[in-house]
Amino acid sequence: MLRRLHFSKHVSAILLIEAVVLVLFLSLPLFFGEFWVVFFTRILILSLLAISFDLVWGYAGVLSFGQALFFGVGAYVGAVVARDLNILSIFAVLPLATIAGFLMAVLIAWVLLVGRNLPSLIFCALGTLTGSYAAERLAL
């Protein structure tokens, strides 16, 4: 027998706040100039990076310094595709950037997790930190 899911008042309030914030951010270009729109866009982008770090470390318990690596690879691929291939549609660039970040994450995970035993937390942290440092050096 299926049970019905009931939202508590707390969850309903959170959803309402999220909807209001979403509407505020979507209406920013109507009320502010280009500088503020770019500024708030950068805040949202860095907020997504912080949320990904919270998900990996806070919920999964894996200390990873590679979040910036995967995020950066996706951003780099998105910028190169938009510039060199002249594809300016976010619906085309965003999936390609996401796939590039995912493939980099799979590559780093494969390198770190190959072996008979599971690696320690410190090994994963240092491995992802090393990958981030190497990617930073290669990008410059």
TrEMBL record:
Q: Which UniProt keywords apply?
A: Cell membrane, Membrane, Transmembrane, Transmembrane helix
Q: Which InterPro entries match?
A: ABC_transp_permease, LivM-like
Per the record, the major location class is membrane
UniProt GO MF annotations: branched-chain amino acid transmembrane transporter activity
Give TM segment ranges. Answer: 12-32, 62-81, 87-113
- Membrane topology, as annotated: Multi-pass membrane protein
Q: What's an example GO cellular component term for this entry?
A: plasma membrane
Pfam families assigned: BPD_transp_2 (PF02653)
Q: Any idea where this protein resides?
A: Cell membrane
What PANTHER family does the database record attribute to this sequence?
A: ABC TRANSPORTER ATP-BINDING PROTEIN, HIGH-AFFINITY BRANCHED-CHAIN AMINO ACID TRANSPORT SYSTEM PERMEASE
Q: What is this protein called?
A: Branched-chain amino acid ABC transporter permease
* Upper lineage: unclassified sequences, metagenomes, ecological metagenomes
